[in-house]
Amino acid sequence: MSGLIKKIGWPRLIIGLFLTGLFIACPFVGVNIQFAVNDVMGRFGMNLVLILSLVPMIQSGCGLNFGVPLGIVSGAFGAVCSVELQATGFMGILTAMLIACSFAIVIGLIYGNILNRIKGDEMIISTYVSMAFVGFMCLLWVRLLPFKNPLLLYGFGGSVFKPQIPLSNHWAGVLDKVLYFKIGPVIEVPVGLFLIGALCCFLMWLFFRSKLGTAMTAAGSNPEYARAAGVSIDKMRLISVVMSTSIAALGMIIYYQHYTFVQLYMTPINLMLPTVAAILIGGAAIRKATITNVIIGTFLFQGVVTVGPMVAGSAFGDIADALRLVISNGMILYALTRKEQR
Amino acid sequence: MSKKLDFKVLFMKNIVPVIFLLMTAIMMPFSGYSGKFLVQEIVTRLGRDTFLVLALLIPLMAGMGINFGLGLGAMASQIALVFVTDWHVTGVSGVLLAMLISTPISLVFGLFGGYLLNNAKGREMITSYVLGFFMLGAYQIIVLFGMGSIIPIGDEGLLLSRGFGIRNTIMLDGVAGSFDTLLDRLFGFRVQIADIGIPVVTILVVALLCLLTWWFRRTKLGQEIRAVGQDMGVSAASGINVSRTRIISMLISTVLAGYGYIVFMQNVSVMPVYTGANTVATYAAAALLVGGATASKAGIPGVIFGVALFHLLFIVTPMAANRIFGAAEVAEYFRLFISYSIIALALVLNGWNAKKEKDRALFGHRNRGGDRINTADAQPEPATPK
Q1: Which residue of B has its CA nearest to A276?
Q2: Domain extent listing, chain B
Q3: A67, A56 in Cβ contact below 8 A?
């Protein structure tokens, strides 16, 4: 029994039990459990790839990617460009992904080079580098981009972007609707969303079994040994940063197509700590993360933050927001203060 | 040759203040502000902010980097200020009472923070950053749900319309200007030099803290903290209790941050109850870093220069950007961009310099007498026949 608890890990066990408790509480506070299940499925699918994007950097020894807003803002840029180009349907989402990923690769190369020049304080530096960049992008959204589509801009002239851009006429839900079916009147299963998530997870799994992936893991877990074996640590770190940033951009496009809105300005920063917290809840550590961690973490975290407000919403008002801060940041603190196991 | 190198090293070490000083100088004419207005603003803000920034010094000395968890002290003071406003204690006694109430709360928060940071050696900065948000959650639960329901609040005007929980912003009319205009009220006229109002008592309080910090560095505890900041291993070997020393520096920092926030609030007088604390921490860190502090070294003159330069930037650049781009929305985002990029740039360049220094030390050792043959300290080794 204690062996099993150790294998699952106390935090996962507690949060798992908490989530079960929330589901059980649903009928008692008048929340339709079908809505809860439906929302958890949607949120799980929409966040999975974004959270998966943290894996390469953790494996290569760069730590938790607090620079995930860099990828997110690249995703937003791609999405906005596709709207400007008036690309719709599958072509639309492909355009968005292509632009987002190319932008993210450029950003990732710069970001990776910065991280290679400093070693030791990567996490706090990536936090502020990404926030500074998001701040810079805010200046672009306000004034400096020569975009014309009235859907993107405020109507009073000039080129000020709206904070929320609807995608419903472009490519919102195109992935969700692939092979989509309903269970009962409420639950909609976005099979396409799950399929692309599963594909990304599988490709990531495959990558870490390739020669490059193994070298990356070695560079993170045992740098001296890796160097002796002829692996360039800096190169591995750079590749991992570019991968993390561009997968985050890709993940963000998937996120937007389910969310049906693109959010601009400071919102990318609001996703930083929850994204990091999710993979940690799944059992990842600062230097070790698996695909299983990603899947479990996304499910547990999104489950709690989706069902939590529903249950608490009827009972205690906005306590859910405060609880989310405590749970997600508490989880990050737990990981940061844990003795490293190598 | 060697002189040129020194200049280069000096420039690299102070590159952050130099960059932002240049930026201010270029933007200044575009902002259209008068010199008098700027001087008045800087004097006011020096009084308002320096105390908070000084609170960052002790953990920096202890080798814990920038304490991004400064918000912990600010939250303690926000709780204290809510009580003081509720009890209608006004003026200087209100401020002092708020400080008194904030102290035990700050101590508890600081103890918790210090304990956590001891388990996160080598990544204190990110841990303290996340800690700030963690405590914000706990603080929200106390203030948004505990106050008015479990903790009695008499003044209904402070509460949300549902009957419990504090409003989003509180007017601190009772304590507003208690320090800033204390002498003015005592003398019955405005204390000013060349038309510029001087918050005399606030500046005296800040000066006192500067003196105390200067003195503290020379005490035994101060020396121990510095030793721990230099090398934890050596300090432990020489009998210093490293964990205890680090917790003490976190306690001092949190309590001072609490006092600093009260000094800040008696000037600002409008308290954002749920968003203020961590914002203040960000601005304090940016002010310290723009003054030329590194993640391991900072001095009191640097703090004062940093606060002045940061606020000059903060006033001048958004307005200049506003004029240049012709959009009012730019200003707000420019502020965020400036403060984040100061911190990012300073941390990156510090990390970069530290790594280069480390490499240089390593390189120098390996090539002793080879590469550095021209310098005085590396005499060619005499051939000793065996």
Answers
A1: B130
A2: 3-363
A3: no
Beta bridge partners of residue B159, listed in sequence order: B166
Instruction: Express each pLDDT in A50-87 by its tens digit.
Output: 999 999 999 998 888 898 999 999 999 999 888 888 88
CA–CA separation, A252 and A50 (whole Å): 6
Taking the Cβ of residue A27 and every Cβ of chain B, the question of whether any pair is shorter than 8 Å is answered with: no
| Distance of alpha carbon A44 from alpha carbon A251, whole angstroms | 12
First CA to last CA across chain B, in angstroms?
Answer: 37
Check: CB of residue B109 under 8 Å from CB of residue B75.
Answer: yes
Residue to test with chain A: of B70, B127, B130, B282, most A Cβ within 10 A:
B130
Angle subtended by helix axes A122-139 and A68-84, to nearest 10: 20
Mutate to test the interface with B, among A114, A119, A121 (most CBs of B within 10 A): A121
Chain B contact residues (CB < 8 Å to A): 65, 68, 116, 119-120, 122-123, 125-127, 129-131, 133-134, 136-138, 140-141, 144-145, 162, 295, 321, 325, 327, 329-330, 333-334, 336-338, 340-341, 343-345, 347-348, 351-352, 354-355
Rounded Cα–Cα distance for residues B168 and B164 (Å)? 12
Beta strands (DSSP E) in A140-284 are: 164-166, 181-183, 187-189, 261-263
Confidence bin at B368 (pLDDT 50/70/90): very low
Interaxial angle between packed helices B276-290 and B35-54, expressed in degrees from 0 to 180 and rounded to the nearest 10 = 100
Residue B243 structure tokens: 């964990």
B252 closest CA partner among B47, B94, B62: B62
Alpha-carbon distance of B257 to A269, in angstroms, equals: 25
The alpha carbon of residue B65 is apart from the nearest alpha carbon of chain A, in Å, by: 10
Which residues between 249 and 308 in chain A have a beta carbon less than 8 angstroms from any beta carbon of chain B? Answer: 265-266, 273
Nearest partner of B210 among B46, B38, B331, judged by Cα: B46
Kindly give, in sequence order, each residue whose CB lies less than 8 Å from that of residue B212, ignoring residues fewer than 6 positions away.
none
Q: Mind telling me how many Å the CA of B188 is from chain A's nearest CA? A: 46
SS (H, E, C) B55-120: CCHHHHHCCCCCCHHHHHHHHHHHHHHHHHHHCCCCHHHHHHHHHHHHHHHHHHHHHHHHHHHHCC
Q: Parallel, antiparallel, or unpaired: how do β-strands B169-171 and B270-272 relate?
A: antiparallel
**Cβ–Cβ pairs < 8 A, chains A and B:** 140
How do residues A268-296 score in pLDDT, each as one tens digit? 988 898 899 999 888 888 888 889 989 99
For the domain made up of B3-363, the CATH class stated in words is mainly alpha
CA dihedral sign, ordered B311, B313, B318, B323: positive
Give the residue from chain A lying closest to B144, CA to CA: A319
| Whether B20 contacts B290, CB under 8 Å | yes
Considering the entire predicted model, what is its pTM?
Answer: 0.88
Q: Are A279 and A48 in contact (CB under 8 A)?
A: no
Domain boundaries, chain A: 38-268
Q: Is A191 within 8 Å of A179 (Cβ atoms)?
A: yes
Is the C-alpha dihedral spanning B189, B193, B198, B201 positive or negative? negative
Mean pLDDT of the region B308-321: 86
- How close, in Å, is residue B85 to chain A by CA atoms? 24
- Which DSSP state fits B272? E
